[in-house]
Structures are given as C-alpha cells and as structure tokens.
Amino acid sequence: MKIVAVNYHIYKPCNLRCRFCFATFRDVRESLAVDDAFRLLRLLRDAGCKKLTFAGGEPTLHPRFGEILAEARRLGFVTCVITNGARLANILDGQASDLDWLGFSIDSAREEAQAALGRGSGAYVQKVLALVDEARRRGVRIKLNTVVTRLTWEEDMSELVRRAYSDGRDGSFRSDATAQSGVTWTGA
Ligand code: SF4
C-alpha cells in the first residue's frame, strides 16, 4: 500500500491551551533536528508521498519552519499547514508561494465560545478571518477545521463559512453574533 498523504506533527509546543486538545505528545521529547526533518521529507517523497500536512502543536512556532516548508516545496510536495495563525503572517509574507493549503482551526463564530474553549482571550475569530483574507489574496487555498464540542454542537456556522470564502467586504458578518446563544459551558 502506498501512502500518498502524511500528517507531520512537526512541533509539539503551542501558544494556545484548547480544552479538547489531544496533541499532548507526552511520549515525544523534542522535534527532529532540521537535517533529520529534511531526510524524513526525502524518504517520504521516495516512498511515493505526494501531500504533506504540517501540524502540531503549532507548526508556525517551529523556529526553522520556513526552511522545512521550503524544502517540502522544493521536493515537489503539495503542502498544507494546520494552524491557529500564531506566526502565520510571517510565513504568508515571505513564503506564500510554498503553500498550497492552509487549514485554519476554528470552532465557533462566537468569540466568547472560542475563548471558553481555550483559543485566546476574545479576538480569535477576527484574527483568523484576517489571516484567511490574506491567504486568499496571496493565492493560498483555505479550509476550516472545526472541533464540535458540547459548547458549540448546536451552532450554525454557515455564516462564518460564507464569510471565510468571500472577501468580507459587505461587512455583514460579526464574530460576536450569537449564532447559538444560551448554551452554558460545562467542558469540551
Ligand atoms: S491550537 Fe491545536 S495544538 Fe494548540 S492547544 Fe489548540 S488544539 Fe492543541
């Protein structure tokens, strides 16, 4: 069996503390050295892998992520990064051409729900949408990754999705809009 797509959890640390996070990797002590990461990429390419998705933790926090992403591009992979946007602006500035896809982690259109889930302190949705706009301007394809929780399972996120795939210029979307209100947080 050929493995054509691989998720590479490149970096364990993360700037957020999502309550549902499974990416604790307690058995992983550190990241691969860059030379070893390059070697891994070559091995994957030689084994027939076509698509590489960088995940974490938060991959954009990896101190040498740009070099590894560039190497993935050089080797001909379709590239994707799953991100909460931490240091994505820098990557988009210098290396948008090395990116095919960005997967944005976003679980609600409501800032208070995102904050309750552990994603920042109240401006997460707006930050992600600004990065989505920037990515689309630079020709990077986007997708949204959503964890459904007890806090959000009844929420209609269609307006948020429409906003993400438009340029947002009509101003109709408000991230504090209560797509579903009255749900009490009791845990993920
Ligand atoms: S952003 Fe992702 S890796 Fe970071 S804490 Fe949240 S779920 Fe975990």
Automatic annotation (TrEMBL):
SUPFAM superfamilies: Radical SAM enzymes
CDD domains attached to this UniProt entry: Radical_SAM
Annotated Radical SAM core domain residues: 1-188
Keywords annotated in UniProt: 4Fe-4S, Antiviral defense, Iron, Iron-sulfur, Metal-binding, S-adenosyl-L-methionine
Entry protein name: S-adenosylmethionine-dependent nucleotide dehydratase
InterPro entries: Aldolase_TIM, RSAD2/Viperin_antiviral, rSAM, rSAM_sf
Cofactor requirement: [4Fe-4S] cluster
Domain of life: Bacteria
Single biological process term from Gene Ontology: defense response to virus
GO molecular-function terms, A-Z: 4 iron, 4 sulfur cluster binding; catalytic activity; metal ion binding
PROSITE patterns: RADICAL_SAM (PS51918)
Listed Pfam families: Radical_SAM
Organism: Sorangium cellulosum
PANTHER family: RADICAL S-ADENOSYL METHIONINE DOMAIN-CONTAINING PROTEIN 2 (PTHR21339), S-ADENOSYLMETHIONINE-DEPENDENT NUCLEOTIDE DEHYDRATASE RSAD2 (PTHR21339:SF0)
